[in-house]
Structures are given as C-alpha cells and as structure tokens.
C-alpha cells in the first residue's frame, strides 16, 4: 500500500464495511458451512489494522488504535446484519414453546436452549429459536419470524433495542477516523529533508 494514499484509505474503509457485512450475514445464517464462510471475513477484519502500518509511513500507533475499534466491530458483526434484515422483512408474532433441548452448556453451568416454537394455528415456525433463558412448555414468546425461513426466530424485544447499531456506528466512525489520521501523518515523508529557508538580500 502506498504511503499517504487517500484512495487506498477510502478503499480500506469500504472493504472493512463489506467484510463486516459478509461475516454478519454468514453468521446469522448459522450452520457449520456458513460459520466456515464467516471465518474468512473475520480474519480480514483482524488484518485491516495492520495495513495502517504502511498507510501511515510505518508508524505503529494507528494499528493499535484501529485494533480497538475492530474489536468493537467484531462484537457487533454477528448481530447487526441479521437484526437489520428481520426488522425490515420479519413478521412479529406470539409463538408458543413446544420442544426444548439443552444445545450446549455455557458459563456457570447454564444451558443454551434450543426451542421449537409453534404459531397460533399450531404449526411449527421455521428455523430454530435459541436462548439462555429457560421457557416452560406452552409459554408464550413474542418473536420476529423470517417468512423466508432463512433465519431463526428472534426475540422481538432484542430487535427493538438499537444498542448493537450504536456500538457498530461508533466502531466504524472510530476506525474511519483512525484511517484518516494514519493517512494524514503518512503524507509527511520523513525521508524528504525540509526545504532550506530562503534568505532575501
């Protein structure tokens, strides 16, 4: 990457947004195949801050600052795109808990539960609903359902919250500002001697 290149800086920010979206979509779809697909853009997110070393004229501080914001983006990557999709295309409904199993044990011995939900007519909803909260058989749960069946149901209350949106916005704004700062300092070439002052007669 050429030192102090504004086009390369803009490209780096754009690619970071793209790989964040790809990681989020693949993670939201779930399954081992999609998690494997999500692994590559996740690695690309971690590599992005390293590129600031060359963009900034081989300074190290932009890379460390950018890593903090990339970590914030990683926290939101697997929630943001899926939430956006369900808010736009999902259908809110009150489902009923039918089947439940402990998918895996999480911290403090608690389970990540996998539920089968049924709608008001008794038909099973497409996709799996997972939560660390234990719902009793027959309990009503307010969820948003993907009519295409691509994503599993999600709690309506979680989708009403915009916390992850705000965190992702802060992460992208901070990363873009760091890229801009790295580019600005990279334009100062330390190998070029400062021009000698001109003495007027």
TrEMBL record:
The chain crosses the membrane at residues 34-54, 61-80, 163-185. The keyword Membrane applies. Keywords: Membrane, Transmembrane, Transmembrane helix. This is DUF3592 domain-containing protein. It comes from Dactylosporangium salmoneum.
């Amino acid at each position: 990457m050429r030192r102090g290149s504004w086009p390369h800086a803009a490209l780096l920010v754009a690619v970071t947004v793209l790989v964040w979206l790809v990681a989020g979509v693949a993670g939201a779809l779930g399954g081992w195949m999609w998690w494997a697909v999500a692994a590559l853009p996740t690695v690309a997110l971690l590599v992005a801050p390293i590129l600031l070393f060359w963009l900034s004229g081989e300074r190290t501080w932009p890379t460390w600052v950018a890593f903090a914001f990339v970590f914030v983006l990683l926290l939101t990557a697997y929630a943001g795109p899926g939430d956006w999709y369900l808010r736009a295309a999902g259908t809110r409904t009150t489902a009923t808990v039918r089947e439940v199993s402990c998918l895996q044990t999480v911290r403090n011995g608690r389970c990540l539960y996998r539920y089968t939900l049924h709608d008001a007519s008794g038909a099973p909803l497409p996709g799996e609903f997972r939560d660390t909260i234990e719902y009793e058989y027959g309990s009503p749960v307010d969820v948003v359902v993907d009519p295409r069946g691509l994503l599993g149901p999600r709690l309506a209350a979680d989708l009403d919250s915009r916390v992850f949106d705000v965190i992702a916005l802060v992460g992208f704004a901070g990363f873009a500002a760091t890229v801009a700062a790295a580019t600005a300092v990279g334009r100062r070439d330390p190998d070029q001697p400062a021009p000698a002052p001109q003495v007027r007669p």
